Input
Amino acid sequence: MKVYGISVSYYTGKLEAYLRYKGISYELRNPFSHQKRIREQAGAVQVPMIELGDGRWMSDSTPIIAQLEKERPEPAIMPEDEVVRFISLLIEDYADEWLWRAAPCRGRLSSGTEKPDRNAE
Ligand SMILES: N[C@@H](CCC(=O)N[C@@H](CS)C(=O)NCC(=O)O)C(=O)O
Output
């Protein structure tokens, strides 16, 4: 799997934490080095985006993780209990919509100062 993302992006960090927890290997690619291809394949450059071996592209960390959970359910990341799962989704939404404000991704994303591609450790 290829992850197009940058290390200072909150959402890239969220997806990388998920992939590490699940034991899914991936290659982190710098979106600036692949902008033309990403635009052609996915229509827009946003991070993180993933490119799967079967040719599918996905964007937005929340639906990416939801889809990967369907395809690789073990170990599950969502609580089994419906109420606890709802609270978990609420916390995720809160973090996605509010905590990013403290993250510095916007300035770095447009400056193009991110390092080149690297393989996940
Ligand atoms: N809801 C999306 C948000 C992704 C997002 O906003 N990413 C920022 C970087 S951290 C981005 O690509 N912004 C485009 C831009 O600023 O041009 C997710 O969870 O992946």
Helices lie at 10-22, 35-42, 61-71, 82-98, 105-111. The first strand starts at residue 2 and ends at 4.
